[in-house]
Every structure is written in structure tokens, then in C-alpha cells.
Amino acid sequence: MQCEEVRPRLEAYIDGELGETERVSLRDHLAGCADCSPEAATLQRLRDEIRQAAPTYRAPEALRARIRFALRREGVAGAPSGLRASGWLAYAASLLLAVAVGSGGTFLVLGERQQGTVAAEVLDSHLRSLLGTHLTDVASSDQHTVRPWFAGRSDVSPPAVDLGAEGFPLVGGRLDLVAGKPVPALVYKRRQHIINLFVLPASRGGHGAVLSRQGYSLRHWDEGDLAFWAVTDAAPAELVEFEHAFRAGTGS
Amino acid sequence: MAWIAERRRRSRFETVVLSHLDAGYALARWLTRNDADAADVVQEACLRAFRYFDSYREGDAKSWLLKIVRRTCYDWMERNRPADLVPLEPETHTEGSPHAPAAAVLDADALLQNRSDLRRLDQLIEELPPPLREVIVLRELHELDYRQIAEVTGVPIGTVMSRLHRARSALRRAWEGKECR
Asked: Which of A47, A63, A102 sits opposite B39 (nearest CB)?
């Protein structure tokens, strides 16, 4: 190969795009040519510099969550028209239906329509808390800090209790909105997962089952005059464990 | 049940396509040159991809997603930053000779030389016109081969080669200019 044939192929050579025969003859030429080999070296160095200088961009976690969330709504929009209703209500319906159909042995009481709405709102609040910077208003693992913070801010006083010993450390609390009303949310961690525990005035029906859909689990139980809704992206079994730990921790 | 099918479809989409989300985001970030815009574009692109998912057949999911992200970026720039989309002057794409005429490298070259304040290679890449910027990003950072780049950008392989050459020549001149200082 002559220099005139080599030069137009140098970049393809460095890009690994030449066929075997061409590659070998080009390599042999470079080994013996004092003009072409520095040129090849410069191109190689430019590539290395580009790769070194260029920042590695990664999709932020919040974007990932946003997309999963949007896909879910997309699925609803493309659903059979009977379920197309409006946004969240349709989503709640899909959630309950999916559990009823998908979980085989699980017996699920499809409570009042309202139950589905609360489940949807609670999941919505959970996702919002993960997307934004507003996970906690009061960040503390001390129940004597978290509980009083809610006094005067909401109608219910959430029994905040640190469950760090059981593997569910209390991270803090925040005031969230569920069905347009301010509602205390206690924030716990399970390893890398966040558990949001929403505390509402008691309701009836639909408890006991873990609803799960596309990686999110919900669990609902009543205690006295309070209703608890726990949401997480951890495994459903962890929510059952969480409920036991919480009930034990709050002495009920 | 339609719902079960829908769930399966979404979960397959998340496995097959969303595993390349970082690559999609990086391309959008290089094209829009802004974190928030890149995020918006990528979200829109993923929804588009999900809608077209039935048209995706087994194969190169990364290129497939990048193609949609790129298309969405250009649509977005047309709406929001039309000034960024200066058309390239006519280009040669002869398979055997990727070298464009000397005049053809001048635009990108002049563009970079005028920004003597920008001397870091990553900044120089950002200053390249989008058609040249994207081939450099796809080749050097995403490590796609010519065939994949042609697929993603929708141009013949010869054009990919000539654009790569022009982009490198421009970067190299600016970069060597820096080294001579």
C-alpha cells in the first residue's frame, strides 16, 4: 500500500472498520512509514483526549422514576375505553384489577370506590416524594422530634416510632396532600428503599392485602381511629414485615 | 386480558429499552447541551418509543432507542431553538474517499476558531454543528460502528464517514492550536 491509499483509510483503520486484508496491509505500511505513522498516532491521541475530556452523562434517578410513572399513565391512556376514565381513578381501577387478576390466591376485597382513589392518591404522593427534593419536612430519627412537629399542622397525630432495630429506621416526616387534605407522612427506610407511611382518619374495608404493581407495593391497615397506608418500591413481603414491626413498636 | 398484555408489554419495554436510558440521556444531553432539556426530551422520546414498541423487533435496542431520542431532540430544537439547527453546506459522500473538499471543513473550523475562549475538547465538541457533533458523540462516546451510526442518524455510511472526518479535522485544528500556544 502506498501513502496515498493509506491516508483516506486511516480513520476507518482506527475506527476498526476495515476488512481484514486492508487492515493488515495498512498496519504493515504504518510500521515502516515515517510520514503516516505519526499521523495515525495523532489521530489515536485525539481520540483518547476526546474520550478523556468528555463528561459521562448518566440519566438521573429522578428521570428514571418520572419515565416509569409516565409509562404507567400511557398504559392507562391506551387501555380499553371502559377503563379509560380520568387519570388516577382509571389507574386505581387498573391497580385493583391487576391485583385481583394477577395474584392468584390473594383474596381481595374491592372496597368502596373511594378506597381505590385513596390508594391511587397515596401512590401518587409516594412517587412525588421520590421525584422532588421534598421527602421530609422534619428530618430526624427521634420520635420526640417528629411527632410534635405535626401538632397543629394536621388533624391526626401520627404515632412516629423509630424501627431502626427492626431494619426500618425512621428518616423523618412531612406534610403531604391526600384527597386535597393535609396528611402526615412518616418516612422510613428499608435498606435503599423508602417507605412512606401515610396516616389518615380511619376508614373501613379493603385492608390486609398488599397491592403491588410494577415494582410498587401498598399496604393498608386500620388501628383505632387511624388508617395507615404504607407504600414502597421494596418487595411486598417487606411491607408485611413493616406492618408487624410498626404495630409492635406502637404497642398495638 | 388486555390489562395483562399491557403489563407484559410495559415490563418488556422497561427491560429491553430502558436499560439503554443512560445512552439515550447522554445523546440528548450532548444535543441539547442542557440537563433539564435533555431530561424532557428523553422522557418524551421514551413515551414515543413505547408507542412504537410494537414496531421494534428483536435486535439492536440501543440503536433503536438512540434513533428515537435523536429524532425527538431535533423536533424539540426545531420548536425551541431553531437557531441551533444551521444546515450543513452540501457534503460529499463517496464511499471510497471520505475526505471532503477543503472548503467543506471551513464552516465548523471557523466556528471553533472564533471561540478562542473555548479550548477544552468537551467544549469544542459542544460547539460543533449538531450533524457533526452527533457523529463524534455516537462514535467516540457511545462507541457505535459506522453501520449503527448510519442507522441512528438516517444517512448513508459514506456520509457518516465524511462527517466524522470533518468533525475530527475541526476538533484537531482547534486542539492543536491549543497545544501550540
From this structure: A63
